[in-house]
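for the recovery benchmark. tokens below, seq after
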């Protein structure tokens, strides 16, 4: 079963014949999600060097954020920074969409086509979508600082003191719970508009608002399946953080390839 959504306003660009055409959103099940995960793993195994390249860059970026936070004395913001950094995973995985697209169509792979294709097709629209995520990250960091000041005031405890407070006192646990709850709400909102919008922009000549709203509609049409997908992403990213981002070298590309196949199931 599917519903129809307007493709939104048109703008100049390649494949302009796609603009104005209705975008059909399909209903999918958990079984479809599992099949997409299997296809994502298969794509990674078929072209591992590309996926590991993008995953490696993202992992280095995560380590860099933690290093800067501690270096500047903002260690108490390291966790919110890392959680916010996860908002950009769909963009870091953009190259994997092109890899999966080419594997799907039997086209040859090369660094030149993989690195340049997504941005050459999506262009400014992809940048606008990334800007929305950046704005959300800034909002999340502002809320994180507000929550920290609300619980701890102007006093910044040492790192051992902060850990002791969080894990041994009711007060600290409340801070940890509220912070994660707020972060989860923001993450779900961001997930709804980036669930399939990046591969949609990479594959079709549409504007970023249409891609964003189509992604939200796809989530609303398939709440159970997409919530399960969000949980899978959250668990995988949590695993990567535990391994000091090393696991991202494999996790990010697998998630990226899976996102492509999920997009193909959701959108005709």
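predicted aa per position
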């Amino acid at each position: 079963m599917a519903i129809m959504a307007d493709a939104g306003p048109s703008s100049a660009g390649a494949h302009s014949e796609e603009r104005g055409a209705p975008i059909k959103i399909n209903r999918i099940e958990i079984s479809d999600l599992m099949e997409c995960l299997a296809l994502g793993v298969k794509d990674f195994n078929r072209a591992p060097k590309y996926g590991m390249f993008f995953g490696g860059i993202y992992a280095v970026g995560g380590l860099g954020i933690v290093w800067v936070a501690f270096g500047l004395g903002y260690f108490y913001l390291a966790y919110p920074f890392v959680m916010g950094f996860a908002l950009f995973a769909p963009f870091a995985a953009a190259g994997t969409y092109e890899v999966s697209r080419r594997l799907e169509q039997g086209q040859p792979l090369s660094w030149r086509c993989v690195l340049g294709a997504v941005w050459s097709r999506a262009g400014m629209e992809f940048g606008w979508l990334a800007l929305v995520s950046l704005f959300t990250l800034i909002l999340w960091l502002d809320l994180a600082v507000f929550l920290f000041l609300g619980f701890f005031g102007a006093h910044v405890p040492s790192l051992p003191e902060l850990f002791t407070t969080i894990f041994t006192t009711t007060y600290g646990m409340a801070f940890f719970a509220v912070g994660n709850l707020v972060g989860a709400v923001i993450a779900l909102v961001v997930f709804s508009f980036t669930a399939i919008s990046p591969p949609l922009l990479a594959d079709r000549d549409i504007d970023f608002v249409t891609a964003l709203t189509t992604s939200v509609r796809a989530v609303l049409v398939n709440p159970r399946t997409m919530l399960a997908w969000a949980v899978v992403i959250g668990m995988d990213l949590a695993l990567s953080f535990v391994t000091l981002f090393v696991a991202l070298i494999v996790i990010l590309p697998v998630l990226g390839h899976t996102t492509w196949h999920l997009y193909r199931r959701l959108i005709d």
